[in-house]
Write a structure and sequence with these properties.
This protein has about 475 residues and is of the alpha/beta class. It contains 17 helices and 11 strands. About 40% of the residues lie in helices and about 10% in strands. Strands 1-3-2-4-6-5-10-11-9-7-8 form an 11-stranded mixed β-sheet, with helices on both faces. α2 packs antiparallel against α3, α7 runs antiparallel to α17 and α11 crosses α13. The chain starts with 12 loop residues before the first helix and ends with a helix. The mean pLDDT is about 95. The structure holds glutamine. The site of glutamine has 14 residues, from β4.
Length: about 475
């Protein structure tokens, strides 16, 4: 069959499926197109592996099944890439770390299992910050990822490869993970849509753990409709993860277009938009946008957020504490390469393996985490941070009694230069100020690419709703992407 590459990329999965059903294209065409894109953009370093032959074989098989009359799955022939922290049976997964070099997963994560059950094709895995720790994708043992819009700039992190894979059309949709912004911030820097659902909406089974009480798998795509469809497939109860909610999963994609009679009440935290670290143009775009919303009949409330200066410290205390525990399994015995010659003394042996296997940022966080959990400092840091988290949670409940949707920037700046912030971890951490809140309290949040900076780079608007109200979040985002894109 001739490659109808002029059809690609399709605007949405729905359009692709329509063309499949009318024989204008095939799954094989799709895989050929994306493989050619992957070859073309190899220099971006967005993928760490591509499964060329296997993806082609699967595409051919799906084409045959469709032609033979088998009912297509909801993600029939949809081409995915997945972040290198999500287990895919018999495929390499390394969290972009030397310590897992050569490791192949022996089982599927629940998310991957559900994608495959609906006929998805996984064409490759995405580069990311090592163990998902970072905001620029520079902490990867595979090297930095480049932003397609300006290759001297970072794509954001830690799911930088997943964002660039969507941005550069290396796939239709990608999966990332979001512990403190790792799906939303790269989406913001790359001009794509990135959503982190509520904590407990998607199973973490098979997701390599960073901060287990924060981690969620998220979806990156070119539009909200595709995010909704993928979420409805991968969300929901799972016997392998007891933190997943058993709340029923709505059919997000069909509910997306049902119009709501009442406009949601919107709110924003005064302190977030007035923050001194926020780029002036990002600030003015947000205020202009809020005024536009008011003109269009939305009620927008200004709210107070006195705890703003505590969120980044609380986040870094709690996540490093959890990481220090989660990463203790990588010791060169259960996982990871062993130092040679093998050390006689066990502690020395672990220490040599871990010093060789982990990069600098991961080591820094393990040490920080161990410190805040140590007997003398536990109450001063860990307990205090837990108290902040609880207070935030309680206040968030009150916020969502007043408003339906909370608006916030995603990042204080647009994509920065590769190397610009790498030598100053504190500066890098502080830039997470707008994303960590949703993870601390567990609410769903999305970044939609509405804005364009005069420096030529895109930036997004972040929307949040109360726990498990993904539907309102997706609906409004979808609506606004159509009404307000490029304000
Ligand atoms: N930048 C944050 C961090 O380094 C977020 C990472 C993430 O969400 N995985 O912890």
């Amino acid at each position: 069959m001739k490659l109808h590459s002029y059809l690609y990329p399709f605007a949405t999965i729905r359009d692709y499926h329509e063309s499949l059903l009318t024989n204008k294209t095939s799954c094989k065409d799709a895989v050929d197109y994306y493989l050619s894109q992957i070859r073309l953009h190899q220099g971006l370093n967005a993928l760490v592996h591509s499964f060329d032959d296997e993806a082609k074989q699967r595409a051919i098989q799906l084409d045959e099944q469709r032609k033979a009359g088998k009912a297509p799955g909801k993600l029939h022939g949809v081409v995915f890439t997945t972040k290198d922290v999500i287990a895919y049976k018999q495929h390499p997964v390394s969290a972009a770390s030397k310590i897992l070099k050569g490791f192949h997963s022996i089982y599927n994560s629940t998310a991957v299992e559900r994608l495959l059950a609906e006929d998805a094709i996984i064409i490759g895995t995405n580069n990311c910050d090592e163990f998902a720790m970072g905001s620029s994708n520079e902490n990867s043992s595979y090297g930095a990822v480049k932003n397609l819009i300006d290759q001297d700039r970072v794509p954001g992190g830690s799911s930088g490869g997943s964002a660039v894979a969507v941005q550069a059309n290396l796939c239709m949709v990608s999966l990332g993970s979001d512990t403190g912004g790792s799906v939303r911030q790269p989406a913001d820097f790359c001009g794509v849509v990135g959503m982190k659902p509520s904590y407990g909406r998607i199973s973490r089974h098979g997701l390599i753990a960073y901060g287990s009480s924060f981690d969620q798998i998220g979806v990156l795509a070119n539009n909200v409709e595709d995010v909704a469809l993928v979420l409805s497939v991968i969300a929901g109860a799972d016997d392998f993860d007891s933190t997943v909610s058993s709340l029923p999963v709505p059919d997000y994609s069909s509910a997306l277009h049902r119009t709501q009679s009442a406009k949601p009440v919107l709110g924003y935290f005064k302190q977030t938009l007035e923050h001194e670290g926020l780029d002036e143009e990002i600030r003015s775009s947000h205020f202009r946008f809020i005024n536009q919303l008011k003109k269009d009949g939305y009620e927008v409330k200004e709210l107070n957020f006195e705890l703003i200066d505590y969120i980044v410290p609380a986040y870094y205390i709690l996540t490093t504490a959890e990481a220090s525990s989660n990463l203790s399994r990588f010791d060169g015995v259960r996982y990871g390469p062993q130092s040679t010659p093998v050390k006689e003394e066990l502690t020395e042996f672990y220490s040599a393996n871990r010093s060789n296997g982990f990069g600098k940022e991961v080591q820094r966080r393990i040490m920080l985490g161990t410190f805040v959990l140590s007997a003398g400092y536990y109450d001063a840091y860990y307990t205090k941070a837990q108290q902040v988290r609880r207070k935030l949670y309680d206040e968030t409940k009150l916020v969502f009694n007043e408003v339906d949707v909370l608006l916030m920037p995603v990042s204080p700046s647009t994509a920065f230069k590769i190397g610009e912030k790498n030598s100053n971890p504190i500066e890098m951490y502080l830039a997470d100020i707008y994303t960590v809140y949703a993870n601390l309290v567990g609410i769903p949040a999305i970044s939609i690419p509405l804005f364009q900076h005069s420096n030529g780079l895109p930036f997004g608007l972040q929307l949040m709703t109360k726990h498990f109200d993904e539907l309102s979040l997706l609906r409004l985002s979808n609506d606004w992407m159509k009404t307000y894109k490029a304000v």
